[in-house]
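Entry 14. Structure prediction run on the chain below.
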Amino acid sequence: MRMRTASLLLPLLLAACAVGPTLEQRLATYVGRSEGDLVAELGVPLRSYDTDGRRFLQFERVSTIALQPEPYSGFGYGRYRPWMMPAPAYAQVRCDLTFALRDHRVESFTMNGQGCG
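Output returned:
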């Protein structure tokens, strides 16, 4: 009975450890799709620029991350005192996404910023 339970749980445990697709992998699915599809899913771009038969659409992705506070040692005694821990700090990170389109189809994309990882 235990062996059967273990064989049923192992795939579930492995699936729980799996990490989803990266941002780059998710954005790659837009290559070849229409400009209308891109705007419908990502929203209205912040900027656009047309040159030499190509169109560039820039989107911005902003995320808030928690920063790990340094433990307060308490007056140099080197002891951990939970009531003296500093409040958690947060920071916003940005990722600029630029899609290049030709003939109203996504040709490529670039990512720039700390929030692209």
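Residues 96 and 112 are 5 Å apart (CA to CA).
Filed with the rest of this week's runs.
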